[in-house]
Amino acid sequence: MSDRDKRARDLRMYFIGFAAAVALTALSFLTAILQPFGPAGVFAALSILAFAQVLVHFRYFLHIDLSRQKREDLHLILFTGLIIAIMAAGTIWILGNLMMRMM
Question: What is the pLDDT of residues 12-35, one digit of tens each?
């Protein structure tokens, strides 16, 4: 595969990713504005759309897929997300406990 073919393939992937990201963002805004499912349904729909947005960014912009050489990068990103989630949950738990003690 020539260098020109690789660039064309990468450019095509960026355009597909951009179109998918714009479509998912538009769907999220429409869901939030129109609220077709009620409050709980809107929350579920926005959560699903957000997860799909993350997958689109991983695949089309960060070029992370399930191939063997990219798995290490995916593990690093998932571990970083886990550490951030643990820190955020711990902070919320501690602040909630302090708030209850102050009342």
Answer: 999 999 999 999 999 999 999 999
Q: Rounded to the nearest 5°, which phi and psi values hold at 26?
A: -65, -40
**Residue 63: left if φ>0, alpha if ψ -120 to 50, beta else—which one?**
left
Residue with tokens 């695949």: 59
SS (H, E, C) 33-71: HHCCCHHHHHHHHHHHHHHHHHHHHHHHHCCCCCCHHHH
User: Any idea where the domains of the chain sit in the sequence?
Assistant: 1-63, 67-103
Q: Residue 25: helix, strand or coil by DSSP?
A: helix
